[in-house]
Amino acid sequence: MESEYINRQFNYELQQQIGGTLPKGHIYCLGYPGTNLLSAGLLNLPIELNSNRLVKKASTDYKHPFDLQGLKDLPKAINEPIMIFESTKRDGSKVILVELQYKGSNYVVVMRLQHKGRGRNNALINDIRSIYPKDNVCGVFDWINSKDNLLIWVDKEKALNFISVQSTNLAGNGNEIQSSTYNIIKNFTNGK
Q1: pTM for the structure as a whole
Q2: Residue 185 to residue 189: CA distance in whole angstroms
Q3: What is the domain partition of the chain in residue ranges?
Q4: Spatial separation of the C-alpha atoms in residues 136 and 140, rounded to whole Å
């Protein structure tokens, strides 16, 4: 199956990057959006990630440093997300909450359409603009409860599990937030 090959290839290249043998500027090819991503509005275009961006995002100079090893199976995780949101920036980016974690915090992957190349070689891709562990779970609950309808796709089983696990991290009005969030997820319809 092609998706299994893409996942294995990504893991192989990721291990090269961790070991310092991946060429600088390498572009990871993460395949194409699956059904879940397509139903959230992503276009059926290649998903790519620049290895330089990955180094920058994982760096201790960045506000959410993480260990690259934790990104093993990223292509699979992206195509089997927990939830997908519109970006609060309203720039067309999609924010994808995945099951991969770093120190108990789920990763978010921010993806948007980007032109690649120039002239006749110009092509559109789904470019991973950012990736980091979302250590502020209240932010995710805010996205779900947003009056701006940021939530655009949800795997109900995974999302309800996420809420039950993460609600222990909420302080103060956690029960009220958890109840509201639970109801939104339970009643959400994908593709509306």
Answers
A1: 0.91
A2: 9
A3: 2-135
A4: 7
